[in-house]
Amino acid sequence: MDNVKTFTEASIMIREPALEIIDYLKRADYNKPTIRYVLYGKAGLGKSLTVAHILHYAYCNGFYLLHVPWVWDWFRNNRIESAPSTFVKGILDFPVISANWLKHFQAQNEHFLSAEDEKIIKTSQDYVWNQRETTPAGSPLSELVIHGINRVKYSGAVVSAIINELKLAASAGRCKVLVAIDGFNGFYSTESKVKAEDKSIVPPNKCSLVHCFLEATKQDWKGGAVVVTVDQRYGWPPANKSPLPVYLLTRKGFEHLDPFVPVEVKELTSEEFHSMLDYYEDRLWFQKGKGRDELAFLSNRNAGTLMKLCASL
Asked: What whole-number distance in Å separates Cα of residue 11 and Cα of residue 282?
């Protein structure tokens, strides 16, 4: 994101992990249960940008997108507002975060939500919010989204309803859906800065959004795909431990995703390393000349570390 602001453009390097998953998506049988793909690797190697490349492919090929940019954003702020869930007892809604996610969903899927009538996904059941407000069966999905944005109190329940409707529509062959979650192991972390009304810490397993997206990543539907990343920067275990999914997901998370296709994101190849520096030179961010060998040594061809080494003072 820093580079997008600096260079006023969004450029993504084409790399093998993204091409591998895109090839799987092209050859998948969408009449079979959803396949889950897990991207793993050390911090800074490019898992998030791999997801961005896959999202671009899915967007261009007619998938609805259910995208969580970074799970830790939900739990990093101790001022996040929480309230008892309106649809599941014993857990909490994050109304503002849920409403912001709905805006994100609306922006990514605007071309579907405003499509011609026969192509619009419509609700399969009545959704009763209170004595006065109801979304009847047969309403466009866009009505659900707008209701959740305008009536923040019910935004968590609307997220759950949208995921449920898209799973049903995809299973019936009316659309294709890509679920993409960056930092999926955060759902099984014990780390959180969010506090309830009684000042107690709200762990991820007590958040309604987490329950919604765990439902989205189950294998009880077809007509789509699930791509998630596991990241050392988030939660337990500590960041200096193994980056492998079996460790970061914990047993419960591993069993939830199993079976899945693991795809490793590795250090930059020599060609990718020089392509990145060529781009910096082209954008007049990096002076031509010597020093590439030293940067390769200092960064160990880690894309994130290389970006920091080339950053401004």
From this structure: 13
